[in-house]
Amino acid sequence: MISTIAQRHDGFDHWIDQINQICGAFNAQPLGSQFAGRIREHQSEALKLSFVDACQARLFRTPRDVAAGEGGKYFAVFQLDGTAGMAQGDDKVLLSAGDITLIDAARPSDFTYSENSRQLSLILPHQLVEQTLRFNQVRCGHRIAASSPIAMLSHRLILDATQQQHLTRQESEATLEALVSLLRPAISQADDGEDAHERIFRKTINCIDQNIRSEDLCPEWLAREVGMSTRGLYRMFAKKGLVVARYIKNRRLDLCAESLRGSGKEQKLSVLGYSWGFSDSSYFSTAFKSRFGIAPGEYRKQHA
């Protein structure tokens, strides 16, 4: 476990420097003569979060900051004490102790701390959130009330997780997955008024998961199964920024990786790849290394 504390030594400048090192590119400005700030980073395998204390300060990300920062993630912000104003796009909320909000790191955001405030900011990988929500639109910038069971359970889970001294990689990943699943009803855009294209897309995603082990699964077969042309299938995925064949391959690889994290060493890699639809063991190994940076055997050793 890594735990570092950056306290106010040089005042405001030191605080924002530490924010930028730990959380990414942000701008800030003091809102009065009584500024106070502190940040504590906590990292335990896949869990990456920080405790941010602030008083009389504004913390914000401009489009330039967004471009300079790392994409592909969300911030789940848990208000622990005090209050804070938050704005992202047209959404503006006031967070009180126990409230939660979700921020898209790929969009500008703005926090205002007029009084003593303490927040926990947890990084959620973009891929984890979107897959858990089954590619429904992610709802950011709104308040999840402290009184809701979702907020109470989520606060308890993440705070308990920070008290664990020796979480394994698998345990930390499972904690993130459990947290996103808990938040799903609050951060998934409601299906009311959903158009036919969205329903077909989700039907197609479900069809892929149901047939992911089949060697027959390919764009042409999938298009026939959901009742549309292959060209229409390609266009539908392209609107989501996806390539259908690549999505199928990556979905198989993600499930293979999940199996490797929980499989015994006695299982042959070629058999595992075949069970998830990879008929060519050499192709499976090459594709796996391309996606995860290491060969399947090394991946299994790391997560043993």
UniProtKB/TrEMBL annotation:
Record-annotated HTH araC/xylS-type domain positions: 202-302
Record flagged with keyword Zinc: no
GO molecular function: DNA-binding transcription factor activity; sequence-specific DNA binding
Keyword ATP-binding attributed: no
Keywords: DNA-binding, Transcription, Transcription regulation
One Pfam family it belongs to: HTH_18
PROSITE patterns the UniProt entry points to: HTH_ARAC_FAMILY_2
The protein's role, per its UniProt record: Regulatory protein of the TOL plasmid xyl operons. XylS activates the xylXYZLTEGFJQKIH operon required for the degradation of toluene, m-xylene and p-xylene.
Name by which UniProt lists this protein: Transcriptional regulator FeaR
